[in-house]
Amino acid sequence: MPETVRRRIVIDPITRLEGHGKIDIILDAAGQVERAYFQVPELRGFEKFTEGRPAEEMPQITSRICGVCPTAHHMASTKALDDLYRVTPPAAARKIRELIYSTFMVEDHALHFYFLGGPDFVVGPQAPAAERNVLGLIAKVGVETGKRVIAMRRRLRELIALVGGKVVHPVFGLPGGVARGISPEERAEFVRAAEDAVEFARFTLDVFHQVVLANPEYVKLITSDAFTHRTHYMGLVDEHNHLNFYDGVVRVVDPDAKEVARFPAREYLTYVAEHVEPWSYVKFCYLKPLGWHGFTDGAESGVYCVAPLARLNAADGLATPLAQAACEEFFSVLGGRPVHHTLANHWARVVELLYAAERMRELAGDAEITSSEIRTLPTATPTEGMGVVEAPRGTLFHHYETDERGVIRRANLIVATQNNSARIAMSVEKAAKGLLSGREISPGLLNMVEMAFRAYDPCHGCATHSLPGSMPLLVRLREHDGTVVGTLRRDFDGSLHRD
Amino acid sequence: MPQNAKPQVAFYWCASCGGCEEAVVDLAEDILGVVEAVDIAFWPVALDFKRSDLESSPDGSIAAAFINGAIRTSEQEEMAHLLRAKAQFLIAFGACAQLGGIPALANLWDRAAIFETVYETAASVTNAEGIHPQTSIPVNGDRLTLPAFRNTVRALDQVVEVDYYLPGCPPTPTVIKDAVGAILSGNLPPKGSVLAPDVALCEQCPLKETKPEQLLLREFKRPHEVMIDPKTCLLAQGIICLGPATRGGCEALCPKAHMPCTGCFGPTARVLDVGAKMASALASMVDASEPQAAEAILATIPDPVGTFYRYSLATSRLRRRLTETAATPAAGRVR
Amino acid sequence: MDAERNALANGWEPRIVAFFCNWCTYAAADLAGTSRLKYPPNARVIRVMCSGRVDPQFVVEAFARGADGVLIGGCHPGDCHYMEGNYKTMRRVTLLRRVLRAMGIQDARLRLEWISASEGEKVARVISEMVEAIRAIGPLNLPAQRAGWDAELEHAAARAAPAAAAGGER
Q1: Does residue C71 share a domain with residue C98?
Q2: Is the pTM of this model over 0.90?
Q3: Residues C42 and C100 in one domain
Q4: Cβ of B230 and A180 within 8 Å?
Q5: Which of A138, A300, C141, C142 has its CA 20 to 30 A from that of A168?
Q6: Judging by beta carbons within 10 Å of its beta carbon (0-12, 13-18, 19+), is residue A79 exposed, middle or buried?
């Protein structure tokens, strides 16, 4: 074999991404990881085919970007329409929207923790693959817990469907309001469900304490360098710099948690730009004032991070008491703000779950949400509108330019996970570099590389799937010319086969 | 894969949002009876996706494969063919697989136009070199590949033969339960059927009684322009509702939420072309006997093609907009 | 477009599907025949009882099956044998035009005319005009377009066979 032979490892497919993802790892002749590429192999083109559509249809059209978080797109879109028509919804409509949105955040975060990310910790990253799934989690925490999670999820989703018509692709969003109000009886249901949601969130935090934080191995893993990146962080905050999922200004802090930008949705183009690589269909966001300097960490790099960890870093705290206490503990244990450990996303997510439940309770307790004043009819001539929300997986921007009849001329979307796409690629590469030794493919590699991107819960995560199974992986070792010289395969039952 | 006597089923997603997968899971406890009766042998988002295992398994070894999502890329096309070979029954699950779905609105453009907007002219993109994703790109002496993005979005049956269709965006739990039950019990309608009631949505709508026999309108209203009366037929209020040309079975979830039907359950069996049918229905409501007056009333519909073909453009009898690059055979072979 | 130039080089002739209402336009076409008026043979006439019977789906289907143009002939407003039929036609065609335009199909390919039973000359004139108008813009030939679009598929040949047998694939 020539000395200059380099090898390539292809991990294909990764699931938990819309369609499939691929990872290509390239080793130099000495067996050191030279580069790793995280490729997204799909595109549908919403930014193009929404041209010509009436703007008021966008909440229902753009929700089809994601059937797991349709409410996030629906809401960002609806807010963009408020801006487009310069119309302010009545207070009751705003509260109804935020109530539905908080309900959705509880449901989505709960699902991710118990069925997707949670098993990594509740069962353990070193545990046999066959156990590292929801069944393993249930075995650890009990069948009752499993049933409780499924029942809680179902109840919350039914409440979303009550107001939104459907839970997958709801229809309630209109510029200036919502299509359907809430009756006093229905509000009582929301109140009951919110109480249970808060209890459920506290329980989830307890689970995290008992199973993860009480285990020094896990804490060591969370804080390990292989899974640490020092980047900027972005999140939505209210006027007190407290995290808010539904509304506020976008705040960006640097790797030392110093605020470096603060802007309303309307100014996003000054701060956010997208970079294109020829080897992936996804675009890579970066901070425009800093510029694109490649896939690198640090205060000089334009790479930034969104989603739970980023949001806690970017905010000065949370607006509800239990969640705020949990947030303070989070930073206290992990060495202060900001926290750069990617795996801490899982903990941050549970803290956010508690906030969303408390916020749901606050809003459900407000009698104004049963008002029949839920619409303000727009009167202005539309030209351009921007809307921003925090989707479960990150900051989400919708930007529409229309003609005078409100027909879309141009649409721009910065979609949650996309903000993270550079950091995900870096995380995968760093994990690969840190864990590959020589030319040996070890089972540890598979687990660790998965964990590197799973912590981000990329949009389309299969968080909803309550079926057993380990991460399916096929690792192929190729010669430089592409000939496959070996494979390591993990089956759905967790067994490993080396060919 | 363990041997046992239970029929094997498979799920796969193409150009999909994941909502159809969510719809299956939303069945929650209701599906338990069904899950006990089958082995889910292949579901990439939850179980091991081993394409080589699928390739080496005998043809027809999977009792039923449910595919959601439209066909947008070469990889999705290949998987559709593979599953067709391995499954006895292939079911198009959801509006995208049945009709092309919302992603099929991209058929008003082609790959060149879509890439130009997404990778060059979108407001936040900085790409002075005009870089586009490539199906095969040399990087530092190696070669990375991506599936090809086709010029035209297709429904599943425009790529492989489909046995049954489950309509909806997404299909409702009732529709899914009834269909899966029918498949497992062997109690199936003729091949090619849509597994949902063959009636127009108006029949099932709670506002049916307020829909006038003869409906004549002087203008169409957009939902954000008016206060919607939740107790009156939406069309009678001048709001475009596709109920008359859309298949029922969804229990009128959108009208119940005070918003009009947008047609996600697709056409009834008697419809040849969804968009033309809807145009016909709406035009018949126009209260004008002069062409200019008719034009003025119809001008209050801002986006006929996107409204009437919201979910079904790929399966329009016209299929896609005529564009230079899509029409040239050579363009299809550029990889 | 290559397709057009090839077609013209191969002696292509515009193919027009004409829906004529029984009471007026079809009678006028008969009159044109008995009067021995000369006009191009490019129109395939389909007799319907009323122009209002022409569902927009028929128009779209005609294009899908290879028509280069569609002509609809009905009674003058106010003269419809069934009172309202031709008004419905007028409204439907007005809306259908916008859909066709959005799909890239030129306006000249769809024409709506009011032709009474005595206007044999008008039938001849309208058909002649339409044939020339379409000759100028070239063939539509959607079946060939579909074959072109499907060339990008890996298994195009496999799909073409059963579709052709069905006599008009989707």
Answers
A1: yes
A2: yes
A3: yes
A4: yes
A5: A138
A6: buried
